[in-house]
Amino acid sequence: MITSLLIANRGEIACRIIRTAREMGIRTVAVYSDADAQALHVRQADEAVHIGPSAARESYLVAEKIIAAAKATGAEAIHPGYGFLSENAEFAQAVTDAGLVWVGPKPSSITAMGLKDAAKKLMADAGVPVTPGYMGANQDPAFLAEQAAEIGYPVLIKAVAGGGGKGMRKVDAAADFADALASCQREAAASFGNDHVLIEKYILTPRHIEVQVFGDTHGNVVHLFERDCSLQRRHQKVIEEAPAPGMDEATRAELCAAAVRAAKAVDYVGAGTIEFIADASEGLRADRIWFMEMNTRLQVEHPVTEEITGVDLVEWQLRVASGEPLPLRQDELTIDGWAMEARLYAEDPAKGFLPSIGTLELFQLAEHDGGRIDTGVTEGAKVSPFYDPMIAKVIAYGEDREEARLALSDMLEDSAVWPVKTNSAFLIQALDHPDFVAGTVDTGLIGRDGEAMTAEPVPSAQALTNAAMAMVPRALQAGFRLNAPDARSAPFLLDGKRVDVALHGPGTEEPAPAMLVAEAGSVWQLSPWRAAGGPGGVAGDGAILSPMPGKIIAVDVAAGDAVTKGQKLLTLEAMKMEHSLTAPFDGVVAELNATAGAQVQVEALLAKIEAAE
Q1: pTM for the complete prediction?
Q2: Which domains does the chain have, with CATH numbers?
Q3: One of 227, 297, 343, 405 is an active-site residue; which one?
Q4: Partners of 217 in the β-ladder
Q5: pLDDT for 43
Q6: Please, which residues bridge with residue 518 across strands?
Q7: Residues in CB range of 580: below 8 A, 6 or more apart
Q8: Is-catalytic flag, 343?
Q9: 47-106 residue pLDDT tens
């Protein structure tokens, strides 16, 4: 058995691996960048090694530094987690060439499944059904446009080396193809160093079903049943569950058997996921489910599989990497109950899901009975702009789907994070959506109904009154009685915006300077109007401010250009995602302070639009 392990990752997955390794008596080594010097995974590991600046390309993505850290600390093995170098075959080979144990699949398996076009051809040869599309080497834009037209719109452009929803664009019409292709290729090159794409037929009622597979070095391959990851936003998973709703035993048997064939076709060792797309227009049917790709690593959503099978997948990874056979045979694996996972992101859904950074002055997540929280941060930690904005995974278990759904909703409602914004209220709305409740979600749900889910949450009048009364001096409330009819209201600041709050009762002897209002998974700061000095200044109409620190990757206008409302002005990249800034109304670009390649800070004035006369 491995006795010492370096974890080539950060955040919640590093903490997750440390937890199991500690239970197995394995010494752990963490690596960290400048931004992560005080991170939770650094504090939890037995030893930690600094590997460079905050930017991942100078730290977590530098294979030589990670291998050197392993040798310097005497680590026997390296676990890559997910993301970063986890599916990099060259890194996996370098680890083994250095005499270290690689906790993951063979480099040849990673290579075989790493490029989506080659993987699909391999799967077709193995008898695994694949989605119709173009997977060739010709990357000429005009040729790709012809292929898209031949396949028939809508189509999906996908980076062949992609993953995590990046380098992927849905195109509904030929007129939109060129811009979508350029954007997809640009993002693919930045994220994966490879701008090649493939074109797939876009399934109109798609569900994302995936199967957890596991192989060992003794020729054994098993599946641990399926997960449903259909609730997505911009091709990124939002809520995952296991098993998949509406999956009958016959379809499950065929689907899981296909997944095992796929794993065997690449002589797979370790944890992997075979991802399928299903046309759910007539329910889940084996003849309407096609292979999409294989993730040759542990998945973000692995906890839901653990919850319904009772298996610790990280323990299995470490045992298999140590040369042991799989702990259980296929006939010993069963489904027990239902599990759901929500990804809690530091982002503001009401502002287009823009990342939210800052210090977690309040970070309280509810872990109810049967619930589980996987996180890599604690109260007081800083959310930086350098990495993925996921700050926690909230996992609930139930005897059936409805019990799990309600449990997850309760956990989110009872959680509180401030001043960093999160998607908690959005997740609660998604869980309550009629289609989700019915188990008939397809991947387009948020795109269709997301506006209602992303409305800016507001606290109830009662919650505001309760908080306000803690700031009202008793002397100002003489003559008022608790629970009396609304007799007075006063102005307050709610997150910097004026609100008039009804006041009841006698007030308090020692007024608080400000209060946090926590309700339904959201948190606001309520301040006295006078103490706050009234509302602060805001950017004038037409001022285009950077919503976050980031890098300008494209500027689409020049000073003096006429623009129309909604027209894209420039593209900002932050937290590994692209964000387009658009014109607020018809007008002229009166001022432009943006240059492609430039780094900008939050609220930097990038452009100013003057209204057309």
Answers
A1: 0.80
A2: 4-103 (3.40.50.20), 107-131+209-336 (3.30.470.20), 132-201 (3.30.1490.20), 338-456 (3.30.470.20), 461-532 (no CATH), 543-611 (2.40.50.100)
A3: 297
A4: none
A5: 97
A6: 523
A7: 568, 569, 570, 571, 572
A8: no
A9: 999 999 999 999 999 999 999 999 999 999 999 999 999 999 999 999 999 999 999 999
